[in-house]
């Protein structure tokens, strides 16, 4: 192999929340790949860098003959990211046409219910499920440099090497693939129907998570007070450790529940997001063609606007709780996993608020165009 290329597709916010663990894994796997093959590899890791740029499609097309791997890091946010969706859809479908789909190796970083649904409504989730992913939902907690982590990196790199050894593509097929068009996704009716069915579910999740957050907050506050109240120098540390371990045990199910709710919320939000953006995009043309439809669009836009303050009120304590996690996480090794799980779930809701704020901004901009 010569001039081989590796693409690592992930959501930057996920990497930031994981303290750079995702990008670290990318570099470690690429280094191990080079060690196993003896070939240098060009790693496309950061889409913000100039090497990635706006012409990533042409880079993928021009690199298919020498591609080493395409690794999408699967989380709920991945399917909410337009950039990630485009990258995976574009590469996977072209690779499949050329018979090199084994070079797509998803890394499952966060498991969530929509990924296991019998009939997923997101075509890209259906596509991802056709690949044999590498499960890092637990391995991601292994410390870098430990035997467990190094063995997992070696196994992942070895899988990629074996996939490369079996993947062949001719220049004729490559040229033919350049002329093929991307397969169509769901139609407008399917997108709007998914939005309608997901909106009530999203609202119910917001109510449920508010109650769950309050319960966890009370447990954390009680434990913090008890830990601070240990004054006897002979037994203080042992008693504090006991309280921390008891808190860890009591938080396991509630924090798992928060993460599951976050996953479900992100999945529902993705369905709603596609429908809302479609409605916003259609509004000017529809109103111009049928002015009477303006009232319907205004009613819909107003309902979307009203969702934001309700969501902000319901999730008002989320950011505060995220800020409280770090000092509690440092108290004891036993608390690290439930606190990470809690942060993982809560962050999905915070990101969801940003998506909803984006809707309102788009609606306001669209209204100006409609009125002009």
From TrEMBL:
Species per Swiss-Prot/TrEMBL record: Gulosibacter chungangensis
Domain of life: Bacteria
Domain TIR residues, every copy: 2-143
InterPro entries from the UniProt entry: TIR_dom, Toll_tir_struct_dom_sf
Protein name: TIR domain-containing protein
Gene3D superfamilies in the cross-refs: Toll/interleukin-1 receptor homology (TIR) domain (3.40.50.10140)
Cited Pfam families: TIR_2
Gene Ontology BP annotations: signal transduction
